[in-house]
């Protein structure tokens, strides 16, 4: 009897050790969302707008962080309390709406992922000297390998956490070598010389637009962190994810500002690479290769995982084979890039267009928060509803304004 009991105990211990801790799952969701946001477009947008607005870009970052938090807290909480993915929530709000939202998210995710694959190829080009196309194929193979291993979700979490920390650390080094005017940046963050709506829409779209804000929310749901009891953890995770992405945004802004403040010109074909090279020479250029590859490959993973999570509940076969659909998503993105490439202006455009998806998706979630058939007896805080509604109205206005007046100038 003793021997049998010990065997059973050993089995329980082994089973327990294989399961990631709750904290590990929460951190995984934080970094999945944050590194999904920090992609090639993120690096390009931040550098281009710093060149245009100089220290006043700090104000754009500050406003975008507030809007990001307002959007993400609402979305993650409603997903958690309803215990459903966003597309299923949307279908309960209005039959068929979930399919429409899913189409928007998947198309936006695919467009972003082509840019992510391009960035991974560029990073490999800088590091190893291979062509961007070859680098993209190598990176795609690495991303695919993550999803075909037995514990894919655990590997995905660890991979994004490690590379997220690497990106921030290396960019901090470049900040120290660039020596930016930090005092001026602080002042202009609150008293800007110019307010640029295009920049605000693009930053919010690039941080919580399209698929990105749902990355962590859906990851928590898959990990079983859901229900009213989990709301405090979900809220902290939502804010923490924005915090990680914002740290990278601020660090990159300061690095670029240090270069721009010296009157140095950035290469329009690759602005972020210019920042690293002008600030830290050839070492900086190699560091850029690491940062670009890390940003791109983690965004490839986040975009593929989250985009597919928006369709996997529509049919049992999609759920059964969702990992292989993720693999197909990555392969298609790679084929498109190798065939047609991805210019800098289009990365900025996709960020702006993703900002237009946010008012729709967030608006749907706010309506869902007051439907008992979706959230039961949960009472959504009034201040969160007001905060979220402000984000919806502000992003809708700025997004339409940008679409009509600013985007055509990018391609004029």
Structure notes:
It comes from Anoxybacteroides tepidamans. The chain crosses the membrane at residues 23-43, 49-71, 92-114, 134-152, 159-178, 198-217, 238-265, 285-311, 323-341, 347-370, 382-404. By secondary structure, this protein is mostly helical. It contains 19 helices and no strands. Helices cover 83% and strands 0% of the residues. Helix 6 runs antiparallel to helix 13, helix 6 (97-128) crosses helix 15 and helix 8 (152-178) packs antiparallel against helix 13 (271-309). The radius of gyration is 21 Å and the shape is globular.
Low-confidence stretches: 1-17
Spell out the helices and strands N to C.
HHHHHHHHHHHHHHHHHHH
Specify the biggest β-sheet: none
The CATH homology group name: Amino acid/polyamine transporter I
Q: Approximately what portion of the residues adopt beta-strand conformation?
A: under 5%
Estimated structural class: mainly alpha
**How far is it from the N-terminal to the C-terminal residue, by CA?**
81 Å
Q: What general form does the structure show? A: globular
Any idea what the radius of gyration is?
Answer: 21 Å
DSSP strand tally:
0
Just give the CATH class: Mainly Alpha
Stated plainly, the CATH topology is called: Amino acid/polyamine transporter I
| Arithmetic mean pLDDT | 85
**Count of folded domains:** 1
What is the helix tally?
Answer: 19
What level of helicity do the residues show?
over 70%
CATH architecture heading? Up-down Bundle
Subcellular location: Membrane
Pfam family, one: Nramp
Organism: Anoxybacteroides tepidamans
Keywords: Membrane, Transmembrane, Transmembrane helix
């Amino acid at each position: 009897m003793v021997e049998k009991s010990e065997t059973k105990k050993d089995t329980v211990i082994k089973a327990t050790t294989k399961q990631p801790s709750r904290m590990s799952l929460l951190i995984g969701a934080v970094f999945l969302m944050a590194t999904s946001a920090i992609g090639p477009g993120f690096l390009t947008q931040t550098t281009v707008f710093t060149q245009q607005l100089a220290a006043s870009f700090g104000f754009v970052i500050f406003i975008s962080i507030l809007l990001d938090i307002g959007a993400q807290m609402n979305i993650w909480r409603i997903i958690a309390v309803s215990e459903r993915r966003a597309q299923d929530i949307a279908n309960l709000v209005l039959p068929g709406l979930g399919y429409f939202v899913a189409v928007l998210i998947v198309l936006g995710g695919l467009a972003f992922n082509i840019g992510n694959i391009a960035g991974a190829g560029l990073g490999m080009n800088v590091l190893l000297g291979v062509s961007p196309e070859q680098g993209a194929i190598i990176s795609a193979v690495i991303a695919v390998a993550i999803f075909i291993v037995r514990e894919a979700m655990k590997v995905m979490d660890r991979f994004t956490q490690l590379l997220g920390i690497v990106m921030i650390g290396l960019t901090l080094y470049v900040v120290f070598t660039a020596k930016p005017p930090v005092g001026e940046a602080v002042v202009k963050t609150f008293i800007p010389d110019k307010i640029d709506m295009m920049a605000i829409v693009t930053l919010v779209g690039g941080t919580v637009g399209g698929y990105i804000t749902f990355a962590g929310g859906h990851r928590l749901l898959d990990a079983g962190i859901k229900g009213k009891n989990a709301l405090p953890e979900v809220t902290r995770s939502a804010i923490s994810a924005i915090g990680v992405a914002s740290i990278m945004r601020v660090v990159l802004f300061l690095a670029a500002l240090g270069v721009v403040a010296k009157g140095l010109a950035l290469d329009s074909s690759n602005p972020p690479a210019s920042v690293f090279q002008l600030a830290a020479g050839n070492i900086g250029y190699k560091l850029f290769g690491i940062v670009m590859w890390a940003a791109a490959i983690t965004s490839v993973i986040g975009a593929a995982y989250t985009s597919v999570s928006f369709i996997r509940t529509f049919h049992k076969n999609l759920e059964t084979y969702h990992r292989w659909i993720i693999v197909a998503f990555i392969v298609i993105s790679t084929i498109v890039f190798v065939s047609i490439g991805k210019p800098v202006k289009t990365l900025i455009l996709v960020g702006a267009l993703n900002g237009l998806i946010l008012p729709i998706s967030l608006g749907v979630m706010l309506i869902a928060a007051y439907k008992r058939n979706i959230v039961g007896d949960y009472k959504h805080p009034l201040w969160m509803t007001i905060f979220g509604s402000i984000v919806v109205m502000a992003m809708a206005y700025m997004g339409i304004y940008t679409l009509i007046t600013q985007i055509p100038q990018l391609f004029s």
